[in-house]
Amino acid sequence: GVSPSVAVVNMASSAMARMAGVNGTAKVIQVKAETVYPNVLAVTGAIGAGGSAGISASVAVVTFNSDTYAGITNSEALSAARIDVLTNVNNTAKAYAMSLAGGTVGVNGGVAVVTNRSTTNTILGTGVYVIYGNADISSNVNTNAESFIVGVSLGFAALENVLYVLQNGWGNAITRAVLSVPGHMFNAVMMGYYYS
């Protein structure tokens, strides 16, 4: 049996907050742009099983493409007790790819990818004069990415058990079925964890 599985999540956005060509007085002037993608998730799973061969492949991809801009430009005079120009970006992504293959020959593969191609601009431009007060120009970027791949292939264990039982008798079949197949799986997972 052959089983492919693909999931692609592409998050694209443009957030802009701009104040331009303004003269005036205020207690507080705040320009803020925000891009928030919390808990974006791509999960794939594939199971390939067959008598002679089991083949499975699983791919999970998450991409962020965003442009976040906050700025005050081309203003002649602003009078305020406080001027804030803020950008806030908060992206969290998880990609999980899982595959299982079983048969006399079992082959599987998994790929999990998270990419972040985001830009952030926070500007208090030329030509802006703060007459009275304080200016706070700040950018907060918080990006978390997690990718996880699980692959289990139990092909040779089945053939090995059949050959072992034919050679050593049916009395060993139950013991081999209970210990050998889970043992192969456990050892493969441990090897994959430590050698990948």
Whole-Å distance between the termini? 26 Å
Give the number of helices.
Answer: 2
Instruction: Point out poorly predicted stretches.
Output: none
Strands side by side in the biggest sheet: 1-3-5
The value of Rg in angstroms is 28 Å
Percentage of residues in helical conformation: 10-25%
Alpha-beta content class? alpha/beta
Biggest β-sheet: count, sense, barrel? 3 strands, parallel
- Which band does the percent of strand residues land in? over 45%
**Rounded mean pLDDT score:** 83
Order of helices and strands: EEEEEEHH
Q: Specify the overall morphology.
A: rod-shaped
Q: Compute the number of strand runs.
A: 6
Summarize the structure.
The chain contains two helices and six strands, in the order ββββββαα.
Give a structural overview.
With 196 residues, the protein is of the alpha/beta class. 19% of the residues lie in helices and 67% in strands. Helix 1 runs antiparallel to helix 2. The two termini are 26 Å apart.
Write the layout of secondary structure elements.
Blueprint lengths: L1 E19 L3 E26 L3 E21 L4 E25 L2 E20 L9 E20 L1 H14 L4 H23 L1
Parallel strand pairs: 1-3, 2-4, 3-5, 4-6
Main traits of this protein?
196 residues, alpha/beta, 3-stranded parallel beta sheet, 2 helices, 67% strand
